[in-house]
Amino acid sequence: MNVLRFIVPGVMSAAFLVASASAQAPVGSDWPARPVRLVIGIAAGSGSDLLARALGQRLTRQWGQAVVVENRTGANTIIATETVARAAPDGHTLLFALDHAFTTTPHLYAKVPYDPLKDFAPITLLTEFGTVLVANSLLPVQNVQQLIALAKSQPGKISYGSIGAGSQMHLITETLNNKAGIHLMHVPYKGMPQLSTAVMTGEIGVTWLGLFSARPHIASGKLKALAYSDSKRSSFMPDLPTLAELGYPEVVKSVWYGLLAPARTPRPLVERIHRDVSKLLADPEFREKEMYSKGYEPSGLGPDEFAALIRRQFEAGALMVKISGARVD
């Protein structure tokens, strides 16, 4: 008897069944197969880093593999962003992205080693928030309209502070200068502590501060809140108008944190990660402890909507950089 006549068909049938099961299994069903790197371009201990670590800890429990936060600092987050752009598109290297790496940095530098619109697969927007235009308590203005009127009557006499050319506060104020036809004089500072002190002591007239860091000084009367930089009002200060609704729709600049993967990451895997992170962002305990208490409004925007937001803000960033004339060599 030719035993092979019975064995070979059996082996082939078994192989066919395994292949069929593999073909029917959703892409990423065996993912993650090893620890996942969550790369961030900011130093450990910063607000964005703490959120990344909280996210990583919860996803570690959910995925059954360690999610390791990797701080790749330097070059204004360019190093971290490039690291993920060049990584294998298998879902094991993700980027905890800060907005400027995709919206303004590509326009500030003569060349960046990644394409913000082609080298990534957007997964989800984690949070988006604006900053507050604040004035020293002694500056005789109560709102943006009065600030503009005063600036027009005293060209170059009112100063504003930033943490340097190309920073968000520099770009947005120069755009306001351009659109309102005024000249607020730019004074750069080395960091946020010096900038905050300068506006509270009256060394400068106005600047932009994070909402949660500004609120105590607004409540104490040391600073006056004039406007919000996002396209919509903040739920934390709902009475504060945006510059867009005051007649300056070009003067909009938000800060956002998002999750992205390398381009060519399989779409089913991108969608799975989005679902898992969205579930986490919807968890009441996580929202309260890791988001709301720190001034973050959870988003969970999907891959396509997040990609559209990046493209819009990339184009808006190009205009702001052009208006400001800022360049980083």
Summarize, please.
The protein is α/β, with parallel strands linked by helices and 329 residues long. 43% of the residues lie in helices and 19% in strands.
- Tell the overall outline: globular
Count the beta strands: 11
CATH superfamily of the largest domain: Bordetella uptake gene, domain 1
Binned, the helix content reads 40-55%
Uncertain runs are 1-26
CATH domain class of the largest domain: Alpha Beta
Number of helices: 12
Number of domains: 2
* Widest sheet, order of strands: 2-1-3-10-4-11
Beginning-to-end CA distance, first to last residue: 80 Å
Major pleated sheet = 6 strands, mixed
Tell me what you see in this structure.
This protein has 329 residues and is α/β, with parallel strands linked by helices. The protein folds into two domains: 36-129 and 254-324, 3-Layer(aba) Sandwich (D-Maltodextrin-Binding Protein, domain 2); 131-228, Periplasmic binding protein-like II (D-Maltodextrin-Binding Protein, domain 2, 3-Layer(aba) Sandwich), CATH 3.40.190.10. Helix content is 43%, strand content 19%. The protein has helices spanning 4-24, 47-63, 78-85, 100-103, 105-108, 144-153, 168-180, 192-201, 211-220, 267-281, 284-291, 303-324; strands at residues 36-40, 67-71, 93-98, 120-129, 131-136, 159-162, 185-188, 206-210, 223-228, 255-262, 298-301. It has a six-stranded mixed sheet, with helices on both faces. A three-stranded antiparallel sheet has the order 8-5-9. The chain is globular.
